[in-house]
Amino acid sequence: MGQKKVKKKPTIAILTGGGDVPGLNPCIKALVYRAASEGIRVLGIRRGWAGILEYNPADPETSGNHIQELVPAEVRTIDRSGGTCLHTSRTNPSVVKKENTPDFLKDAFNKGEDTHDFTSHCIKGLEHLDVDAVIPIGGDDTLSFAERLHSKRFPVIAIPKTMDNDVFGTDYCIGFSTAVTRGVGFIHALRTCTGSHERIAVIELFGRYCGETSLISAYLAGVDRAIISEVPFEPEKLARLIMEDKRANPKNYVMVTISEGAKIIGGEMFQSGECDAYGHRRLGGVGEETGTILKKLTGQDVLNQRISYLMRSGSPDSLDLMVAVNFANMAIDLFLKNAFGRLVALSNGNYTDIPLSTITTGQKRVDIRELYDIEEYRPKVRHVSGKPMFLY
Question: Which of 190, 208, 253, 362 has the fewest other C-beta atoms within 10 Å?
């Protein structure tokens, strides 16, 4: 009598890519707990897409540092802190430089080839691990490779996260509420120093192409002027406006927020270093440069503060906890229904899912006409009826 074949347990692989945000660990925990309750095995891919790029199906014993099985007991307490227990990277397996390629893959490069597409290798690795679907948690860049996997017919269910809140197709991404909460808190904290010394404070916030973080933080914190990524600004005009604000303030100080991706009229973004795998260079410095110019134009002392990584550090707030857990449960629901190539999302305040390909069909930016006064360089919300909870 032949031996009875054991049915393979359904398996998902999860990963986090790009910048870390508060809410990733709660999402991972919810995925693992819900999967376990449904009899689904969970593999964690460490360091984003780099983990599966560096996985060698021909020698899996050497790849233990890249893949780990996740069970409830192991992730029981991770939701109590920020960041991601799986670690992260900005690796793009479809465009890999030779110096960033694992040794066992370097022979794949053709003569004269600067970069190589290892998508097929990643699919081979996922299949070798018996993965039925991969669930990436990331922003535009991480999810663009997820969409590429889907286009090659590998099952994908995606979860959006980014504190810029700029993934097209969803009203909300994990991490945004906490980033705004941090921004508002630090802006108010800086008022004591700024007011004590009767200065101009220029506070630089994250936001490459989308200025929503600067806009909403300024709107909620009652900041005097807000410079956003979408609207190039004129320093002389800004100087005139903030001096009017300073004179009108009995405490004789003024607060200005600025997106790291903001540009002076006729200028470019302040970038440094080499491009990452998605073509982005490191941003930062526009706040300090703007402060230097304002000091020269006004003759006033300027307090420059780049909040940067503090916005994405620490534990998530309750809203990000709620969205992270619900997005995780939605992803498992989709897996159980064999509904692949989907992005879990929030639309008009309702949880839903949309085609993953949606992320490549547009750009999510601040609605200037509805939310910003380009003449006054400040938030100007015309109306909120019918808009998402976090305006955009």
Answer: 362
The single residue listed with the structure tokens 């927020």 is 257
- pLDDT tens for 304-317 read 999 888 888 889 99
In this chain, the answer to whether the domains covering 11-174+316-360 and 178-312+367-379 adopt an identical fold is yes
Angle at 165 between CA 374 and CA 340, to 5 degrees: 140
CA distance 343 to 354: 5
* pLDDT one-digit tens code per residue, 203-262: 999 887 788 888 999 999 999 999 999 999 999 999 999 999 999 999 999 999 999 989
The CA distance from 48 to 50, in Å, is: 5
Give the number of residues written for the chain: 392
| Residue in the structure block whose two tokens are 């995606």 | 158
* 168, amino acid identity: F
What angle, rounded to 10 degrees, do the helices at 235-248 and 286-298 form?
70
Would you say residue 6 has pLDDT above 70? no
**27 Cβ partners below 8 Å, 6+ apart?**
137, 159, 161, 174, 324, 325, 327, 328
Strands 67-69 and 41-45: antiparallel
Tell me phi and psi for residue 230, to 5 degrees: -75, -20
Place of tokens 């134009």: 297
Better-predicted residue by pLDDT, 60 or 318: 318
Domain 178-312+367-379 = CATH 3.40.50.460: yes
CATH number belonging to domain 11-174+316-360: 3.40.50.450
pLDDT of residue 111: 86
List, by residue number, the catalytic residues: 164
Asked if 44 and 14 touch (Cβ cutoff 8 Å), the reply is: yes
